[in-house]
Amino acid sequence: MGRTVYLVVQVPAYLLLALVASLAALALFAVPQNWTLFVDVVLGGALPPEARVTLFLELLPFVGTSFSPVQGLVLVLAAVLAGLNIALATYHFREHRVSLRAGSGSIGGLVLGTLGAGCAACGTAVLAGLLSLVGAAGLLTALPLEGLEIALLAVLFIALSIWWLADGMRGGEIAGCPVDPP
Amino acid sequence: MTRRGALRLGALGLLGSLAGCAGGSGGQGETTAGGADDSDGEDENTLSGHPGAAGLSRQPYLGADPESASAVIVAFEDPSCTTCRRFERQTLPTLQSELLEPGTASFVFRGLGIIYDWGEPAAKALEATLARSEPAHWALKAHYYDQQRNFDAGNVLDRTASFLDRDTEVEGAAVIEDVDSGAADEEYGIDLDAANAVGVRATPTFLLFTDGTYVTQATGAVSYDVLATSLGV
Q: Does B125 touch chain A (CB under 8 A)?
């Protein structure tokens, strides 16, 4: 899997795609928690452009303070993996003419990442509501990461998607270099 | 079943089970109490008419008087909320020195108890303490955040009484009596109704007003820059 990913991102266009997709995924994870603020003040309102950029960046992990370092690390990891997954899926589609659905597992990971970010960043009210639906509200205090577990699931999900994509590309060539045989 | 099929099925199952996660607090904090709405007929985009600011004159605040401050932050917090604690530690000190102490802004506290079981009695104890002494109220709030890991539903009132007796001029037993008898319920209900009226689904949530006009709301342990930039101060 590592060699396949490495060979794909060695192509500058796919490296750029992976970077852009990673940043977009990070924004997708972080912004919904403050969607009202994003619409009211970043997109709307009367702030100067530089203030809007500042506000947007402050919503992201490590730039602002909405996420703890551990939460930020998990979200950045999920975003980087999502970017790689999208680059891999796009390469697979363009070069091998297979369906983009090959990378559709990443969509589940993106949604989970978004949910996980929201759950982890809003205290535990949302997760408590979720657990109460299945009669396990008391389980909340037993979760050591207070909802970050969902973002970790997203990481696992996207990593699995990459692994399956890379597995499907074994035996072929990427930019003239042979990938491991199947 | 193919691997892709299994992956998609897994995604659907997980997303289905997590649907409630995006939907908010799942009914927590949905109880109602009278007295929250004192803004009939007023523009909801103004501080005096906004449902989240109902009963504002009865709430404790830091900095300038919210009636006259150019910027007002109405904060919904839960003493048992770890994210509120993080906000208290990393953002509030800067807010204090930059905006509240100079009198530029007002920070209004509204206590909720919707996260852990001990949050509600703690929020009611804060109300009962506020009725006796505002400095003791702020001290108790700080104590809840300082000692957050040590509280649970079984010990919160005992520990609250001990703290009040030891570190404030307020009699702990009287506060606990107000919580147990329901005497603190009305003031707590005003905050809860205000939170429900604006759809607060998580804590901390901040309603931001500039020159008496609603600007937006922020959720989570947001930075000082998010608050100051949104308020335009």
A: no
